[in-house]
Amino acid sequence: MDNKKILSASSAILRKAKKLGAPLAGFANVKDLKIAPSFTFAPQMPVTGKEINIRESEMALDPGEVHWPEHAKSVLVVAVEHPKEKPEMDWWFGLISPPGNKILIKIVKGLCEWIPEIFNIEVFHFPYHIEHGGIYLKDAAVMAGLGCIGRNNLLVTPDFGPRIRLRAMALNVPMPSTGPTAFDPCGMCGDLCRKTCPQKAFDKKLYSSEVYDQTILPARDGVYARSTCNRQMQKNIDSARNETAEGLEKPVKIIKYCRNCEMSCPVGKI
Predict the structure, then answer these.
(1) By the 8 A CB rule, do 89 and 82 touch?
(2) 3-class state of residue 210 by DSSP
(3) Nearest to 267 by CA among 81, 17, 79, 27
(4) Per-residue confidence (pLDDT) for residue 73, from 0 to 100
(5) According to the model, what pLDDT value does residue 269 have?
């Protein structure tokens, strides 16, 4: 596929993603992603693979290691808004995947059917979890131009702030990257996101550039304890109770994870 056809396909695919329900979408080059901060940092973290809710790898991967599909040249990242008015988008209804994730899966499946048919391009739908063959979605979204990593260690987008959900797929064609962007809103709100954490996960600097040999650290400056954040997730799991929900025949345990640092961010709010 020559450059002119690649550019035409890229534009058409981004339009199709939005038509399928993804208000944000962008491309990132796999070569760039392999040296992006999370991809190089995560395998070095002392607690990688030992956190709460970590699943055993089905692919014999080392902790934090990413498995790239053969011939993957670029990654398409799609995002949907997760507004305050729809908290249930991120709830687990027993073992049933959150509704927001179902929306994303439907979008990517639609693209996985449409792209090969129209452009004869090979595609691969990434699983969500790293240990099952997924990728670091926030970094991929940054490299695709969707936003930046904020001081809450979340992806922050111009339109929706951090209130978004992500999914990705790979293509065997090197689509032109749509990012990164110069967008950087942090540092103007007095760290509202960090102050609202119920577990105080942003109270101590754990990582330094000297030790990890990279300038971009978790939450930008290394002041973020993932294991502490995970304690809040476990607390949410332990406090979940059986509730009735639309479409379910009987009550199920509904897990509602903490979103304090996400909801306190003023970016993207009207």
Answers:
(1) yes
(2) helix
(3) 81
(4) 98
(5) 75
Contact 73, 172 (CB under 8 A): yes
CA neighbours within 13 Å on the CB side: how many for 56?
1
Q: Report the SS3 class of residue 24.
A: strand
Helices 3-19 and 99-119: crossing angle, nearest 10°? 150
Instruction: Say if residues 209 and 224 touch (Cβ distance below 8 Å).
Output: no
Full-model pTM: 0.93
Alpha-carbon distance values, 210 to 37, 39, 249 (Å): 15, 18, 55
Tokens of 239: 């406090």
Helix (H, G, I), strand (E, B) or coil at 233: helix
Q: With a cut of 50, list the residues of the chain below it in pLDDT.
A: 49
Q: How many CB atoms lie within 10 A of CB 31?
A: 11
Per the CB < 8 A criterion, the answer to whether 170 and 72 are in contact is yes
Q: For residue 48, what pLDDT is reported?
A: 52
What does the pLDDT read at residue 186?
93
- Provide the residue type at 145 as one letter: G
Backbone angles phi, psi at 156, to 5 degrees: -115, 120
Indicate the length of the chain as a whole number: 270
Q: What is the pLDDT of residue 158?
A: 97
Bond preceding residue 174 cis, omega within 30 of 0: no
| Helix, coil or strand: residue 220 | strand
Task: Kindly list the domain boundaries of the chain, sorted by start residue.
Answer: 3-263
Cα(173)–Cα(159) distance, rounded to whole angstroms? 29
According to DSSP, the β-strands at 164-171 and 24-29 are unpaired
- At residue 223, the pLDDT reads 96
